[in-house]
């Protein structure tokens, strides 16, 4: 008996749902591991201490994302070199909110910092879960809104991306 082959569109939607729920599961795992040193704060893209990040950050990290800036002892470093004022104008958002770009990222949203291709974490996450990476997902009711609770996220993921696969 032959199995039914998934269409490319169905397979892609499934990948988007899987990515969305993997990001959510990272947050849930943090809740169950209070001693892990990791925290989840939706209102932070990424905490300056380097231990917390928003839902977009967890989606991107679950997909193998790598931060441009490493935060150690409250210092921001790129390749073990401190971030300087000269680095800041290279991107429109806070430098520590960027990840190293991949070939799958939307090219028109990729920037360059110190010779590295980078993308904002919310653009990467939106692209990974099948949302328009240029749309504003931080507005009220948006998936990346800072006031979202875990319950809000669970409901929004189901509505905007799809049910848990």
From TrEMBL:
* Name this polypeptide is given: Uncharacterized protein
């Amino acid at each position: 008996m032959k199995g039914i082959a998934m269409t490319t569109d169905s397979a892609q939607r499934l990948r988007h749902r899987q990515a969305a729920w993997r990001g959510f599961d990272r947050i849930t795992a943090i809740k169950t591991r209070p001693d892990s040193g990791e925290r989840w704060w939706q209102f932070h893209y990424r905490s300056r201490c380097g231990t917390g990040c928003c839902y977009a950050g967890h989606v991107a990290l679950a997909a193998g994302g790598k931060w441009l800036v490493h935060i150690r002892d409250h210092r921001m470093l790129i390749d073990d070199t401190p971030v300087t004022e000269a680095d800041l104008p290279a991107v429109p958002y806070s430098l520590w909110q960027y990840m190293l770009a991949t070939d799958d990222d939307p090219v028109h949203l990729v920037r360059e910092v110190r010779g590295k291709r980078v993308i904002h974490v919310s653009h990467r996450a939106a692209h990974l879960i099948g949302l328009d990476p240029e749309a504003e997902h931080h507005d009220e009711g948006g998936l990346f809104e800072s006031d979202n609770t875990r319950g809000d996220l669970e409901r929004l993921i189901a509505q905007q991306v799809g049910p848990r696969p």
